[in-house]
């Protein structure tokens, strides 16, 4: 690998990778060769014609011509002499080529360039991903998930994998993908919601799942996909949603600490972003209060349904940044009218729920709540939402045989990465994006 060259002494080496650039000068040729670990400069004197009394000149001429004809993106293997030289800007070393073999030639026409549109880059995602900046995103994602997984495992959480083929909706009846399923209809899971709650009644205590979620959402915003990776966790024996927020912020801190330690410098170099590990506790503001705060700052949320809108999220984030110097804020105690039937309502005010949204840099990344575990109350809350309890009898059964108090959250992985790296769309940080008009590649 290219990165291993730095540790080697001067001498013969073999290295392979993609041709990034060729500088074909009259007397000398340079190649920048890249693999997923980094880039190195290769150099060779150019031989432009046969020299009669030099028996090696035919081979030299062939090498020069091969290099002149190399297309960007070709995959080559090179043998040569490694030389450490501080004057070489790229990593302070160079390989003088003695032999070069083209293992897989690239088409000379490169279909995308750095200024291609996002849509065009999505068409050629595998080429787009060769860009070191794109590559880094997936290293960051790996580190972020690994750190959270380490937290879960160290704290005795059990990992579950809930089915993605469902007999019913898992959130609302809207945004449901239907699938032909033998002689019936199945639905793609919008969330692991019901089955992560089932784990609480099954006595698992604390669980997590990282998996796909599907939403037939026709919107073209920078934060919506029709398939996304959902990070979910659910815990038993809680007193309120405060316990869930505590878990949530500890996971975020674990993830951000690991990302900063491992990739902080590379993120600064490639994204010009300084990763901040957020201080705990994150600010918590009841939604009604948050709306009042932004109203006093001159922005009134236009929605009549008590929810926050994207501009409201940006406004409250700006307030939190100014007041607490924090990038995260929990907006809490949403109205029952805009929350699902399974959110627990306040004992003293059933118009409000024990729930929250987590806002990061002005965008919602997560929803969490304490769940209603008393089956009679659950049934009443379903009816209140115009639902017929019979429809979800399998779910209600989870609460008919002794169910612990519990709560949890679901978090969109791509949204976290987008906001962490100040990217403009989740399409930039999703391996292969799925949207209303994007099903391929
Ligand atoms: P909610 O529907 O708010 O809650 O989703 C949780 C989080 O998932 C992400 N998300 C999306 N990401 C990309 N594209 C989408 N179309 C999309 N929809 C949602 C967001 C969002 O905050 N069951 C509850 C969670 C819970 O209470 O545990 C749920 O799914 O980051």
UniProtKB/TrEMBL annotation:
UniProt key word Transmembrane helix: no
Molecular function in Gene Ontology: aspartate-tRNA ligase activity; ATP binding; RNA binding
UniProt-listed Enzyme Commission number(s): 6.1.1.12
Residue stretches making up the Aminoacyl-transfer RNA synthetases class-II family profile domain: 138-441
Record's keyword terms, sorted: Aminoacyl-tRNA synthetase, ATP-binding, Cytoplasm, Ligase, Nucleotide-binding, Protein biosynthesis
Assembly and interaction partners: Homodimer.
Name of the protein in question: Aspartate--tRNA ligase
Chain's gene name: aspS
């Amino acid at each position: 690998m290219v990165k291993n060259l730095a540790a080697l002494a001067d001498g013969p080496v073999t290295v392979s990778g993609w041709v990034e650039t060729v500088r074909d000068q009259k007397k000398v040729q340079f190649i920048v060769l890249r693999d997923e670990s980094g880039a190195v400069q290769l150099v060779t004197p150019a031989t432009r014609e046969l020299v009669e009394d030099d028996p090696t000149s035919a081979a030299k001429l062939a090498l020069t011509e091969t290099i002149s004809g190399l297309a960007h993106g070709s995959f080559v293997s090179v043998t040569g002499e490694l030389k450490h030289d501080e004057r070489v800007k790229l990593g302070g070393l160079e390989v003088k080529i003695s032999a070069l073999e083209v293992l897989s030639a690239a088409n000379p026409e490169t279909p995308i360039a750095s200024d291609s549109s996002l849509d065009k880059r999505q068409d050629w995602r595998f080429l787009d991903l060769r860009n070191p900046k794109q590559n880094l995103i997936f290293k960051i994602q790996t580190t972020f998930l690994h750190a959270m997984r380490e937290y879960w495992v160290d704290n005795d959480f059990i990992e579950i994998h809930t089915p993605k083929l469902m007999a019913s909706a898992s959130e609302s009846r809207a945004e449901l993908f239907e699938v032909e399923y033998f002689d019936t209809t199945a639905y793609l899971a919008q969330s692991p919601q019901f089955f992560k709650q089932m784990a609480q009644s099954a006595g698992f205590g604390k669980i997590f799942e990282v998996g796909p979620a599907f939403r037939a959402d026709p919107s073209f915003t920078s934060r919506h996909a029709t398939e996304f990776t959902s990070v979910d966790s659910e815990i038993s024996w809680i007193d309120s949603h405060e316990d869930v927020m505590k878990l949530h912020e500890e996971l975020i801190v674990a993830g951000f600490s690991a990302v900063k330690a491992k990739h902080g410098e590379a993120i600064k170099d490639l994204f010009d972003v300084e990763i901040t590990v957020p201080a705990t506790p994150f600010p918590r503001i009841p939604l009604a209060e948050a709306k009042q705060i932004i109203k006093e700052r001159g922005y009134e949320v236009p929605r009549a349904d008590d929810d926050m809108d994207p501009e409201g999220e940006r406004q409250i984030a700006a307030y939190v940044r100014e007041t607490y110097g924090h990038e995260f804020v929990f907006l809490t105690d949403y109205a029952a009218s805009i929350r699902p039937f399974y959110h627990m309502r306040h004992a003293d005010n059933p118009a409000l729920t024990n729930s929250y949204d987590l806002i990061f840099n002005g965008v919602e990344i997560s929803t969490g709540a304490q769940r209603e575990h008393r089956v009679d109350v659950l049934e009443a809350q379903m009816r209140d939402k115009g639902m017929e309890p019979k429809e979800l009898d399998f779910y209600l059964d989870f609460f008919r045989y002794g169910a612990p108090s519990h709560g949890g959250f679901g978090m969109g992985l791509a949204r976290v990465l987008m906001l962490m790296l100040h990217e403009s769309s989740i399409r930039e940080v999703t391996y292969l994006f799925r949207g209303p008009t994007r099903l391929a590649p």
